[in-house]
Design a protein that fits this description.
Elements (H helix, E strand, L loop, with lengths): L2 H17 L2 E2 L9 E2 L2 E4 L7 E3 L2 E2 L14 E2 L2 E7 L2 E3 L2 E5 L3 E6 L8 E2 L16 E5 L4 E6 L8 E7 L1
Parallel strand pairs: 6-9, 7-10, 9-14
Antiparallel strand pairs: 1-3, 2-5, 3-4, 7-8, 10-12, 11-13, 13-14
């Protein structure tokens, strides 16, 4: 086969393959992130479309009304890119202490409620504390890992 013809065919195949593959969609007005959807083609079969949508908006839990109300220093652990416990009930005047047991950095940022706070990123072994000074519900999250690291503090009198 002629080298020029072989090169032309190879280039044409590469161009065709480059045009195949993935596409992405974005939805306006949504805070969710849409991952890439992939079209899969097989011989003599129509294209099958699969997609994965990643929702980065936190889903906050709520403490059970029968959960004990803690006071003093209330410990919350950041471990394995998760929070334990992720819902707590505390008395006004209690101190909430988040401690990072992961090798990656985390932070704590309130999302509404009776008091606002935001930490800087803190590393393994470090802690961040807040004194609960008003009754109400505080939603908080790690802005670095919001989908898996979010929690709720119910502050009661």
């Amino acid at each position: 086969m002629n080298r020029g013809l072989a090169s032309t065919i190879a280039c044409a195949v590469l161009l065709i393959l480059a045009g195949c593959g993935s596409s992405s969609k974005s939805s306006s007005g949504s805070s969710a992130t849409t991952a890439t959807a992939t079209t899969v083609r097989t011989a003599n079969k129509p294209a099958a479309r699969s997609g994965l949508k990643v929702n980065t908006k936190p889903k906050y839990g709520a403490p059970s009304s029968s959960a004990p109300v803690q006071s003093g220093i209330v410990q919350i652990a950041y471990r394995n890119i998760a929070i334990n416990p992720d819902t707590v009930r505390v008395r006004v005047g209690s101190t909430i202490r988040w401690t990072n047991y992961d090798t990656v950095g985390h932070n704590v940022t309130s999302e509404g409620g009776p008091q606002k706070f935001a930490s800087k990123t803190f590393g393994e072994g470090a802690s961040f504390e807040v004194k609960a000074n008003r009754a109400g519900v505080i939603h908080y999250l790690c802005t670095i890992h919001p989908a898996s690291m979010n929690g709720t503090i119910e502050v009661v009198k």
